[in-house]
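pasting for ref. prot 1 ->
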Amino acid sequence: MIFKNVPHIRFASRLKISKVGMRAFHRVSSFVKPTTRMIQHFGHESTKARLRINEEQLLKFLAGDSIPVDLDLDDGYVILDLGKRWILGLGLLINGRVRSQLPRKELRESMIKETTTSPI
């Protein structure tokens, strides 16, 4: 055993595991919604239903606004990216407008940290 007599391992060994893995999808109304975590981990592989946003649009999302878009897509979820390096999560496209589905608190904390260490 690699971790012999480690207090944290002994404590963790008493925990009962109810589920293993990462939730990937859940149903929201008539849509199947990918989870933010799944999109953040695997969204860079997407080739469809992806919307690149700029800093101005990101600020609108942070303020709770939606943004108009001209996409050849049916209504539903789109992956939001801020350049190739940052998959932010999801937006909901309805009638030519995208509304952020990003967790605001998490996004603000993440963007503040990222923008202080790397340029957008």
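and prot 2 ->
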Amino acid sequence: MSQLPAEARGVAAGVLIYSLICLIANFLMFWLVWTHNERLSYVALISYFAFLATTCSIIQQVHDNIQWRDVITLQFENTSANPASPVLALGNGSTGADLILFYIQYYCYIVEATLVLFWAFSLTQSVYGWSEKHSLRRSFAFANLTGKIVSVILPAIAIGLLQSKVVQGSFIAFMLVADLQFAISVAGGGFMLLMILIKYIQTRRQFKAWSVDYGKNSRVSKSSPAPRISGAPHLKRSLGIYDRWLVVRFTSAFVVLFIFEFTNVWFQITAHQNNIRDARASSPDFSASRARKSYLLDIPGVSASLLSFLMFGTTKPFRDKMYTTFIPKRFQRRSETATLTNPSYGANANSTIATSRRSQMSGQLFPGFDFGFNTDELRNSGAAVKASDSEFPVLPSMLSSRGEKCQTWV
């Protein structure tokens, strides 16, 4: 039976339902990246850790709902004994199982932020053509692979340092270790995003065609245009799980990361204020307002699951997959169904192009064999693209600083 005040149960139920919706969106994202064989792409990795964070948040919400008074009493006792503890300030007074769940969530948040940073680095390589230079191609491919590994390991080291008594002995040192990687990710990602936008503005003013070949599906040859199949419809080249709005989608994701970092700081300030108030109080605060505020602070953390789907699960390849899977065939337009299920369609898992190129790709380390990481394609193909601004507004057909002559991809 719930120990929550009756006035706060509506908010708690609403936040829990919202969290479950986010979890469902994350499951859908899982299915999309797995069916498109992009299981270790940046989008996939972010969704994995968002899923873990959302799951832990739901468990914590249910636990707090059932044992609210017990949880608040234990927090009050610990806060009264250690009012200046940075651990209690970071975790909003959480102890025991709640503190473990909090650390798992916080680890996931740092991983997601670091992945966004390295993703920004990958996009910058594509936009400026660094990774297309033969002398740098191997180095950048290795750097992109290393970035994904570092994004997982470095936050674990930070969480480990937060358990050190030496670090916990200094409030400033503790908060610095906890927030430094967040700050670096936001600052570094913002700088590289600014570089991308500056490049875009410059090429817009020069009226040149720019084709950035980011994220092309690894099952299509990276060294030459896909062969045209006799009788196949005229198709634009596949970009794997991405579409021409990638920069807009990524910019939106970065803005969300910035807002989340602001929310994270607000969370820590609120927790510190609660600890000071609890230390001065003579009894625990079981008020409904305290309960409502506590549950509302869970919303930003679980929102990453929903937002990752809304921003990156709605690309054209993913929309096409959901359309052909979830819309009954009798309601599908025949022309669209024929195109989306055609063997030559780039996003189709049974693509005949993939079959013809698989043996050639498997023997190469860089850039042919991508281990499913989807990072080595970060290069300009050097081929020309014919497109108007209205058809290819941002990426991959922004505007080319190299001014290649345009022609249609087949």
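The chain has a mean pLDDT of 73.
DSSP finds 14 helices and no strands in the chain.
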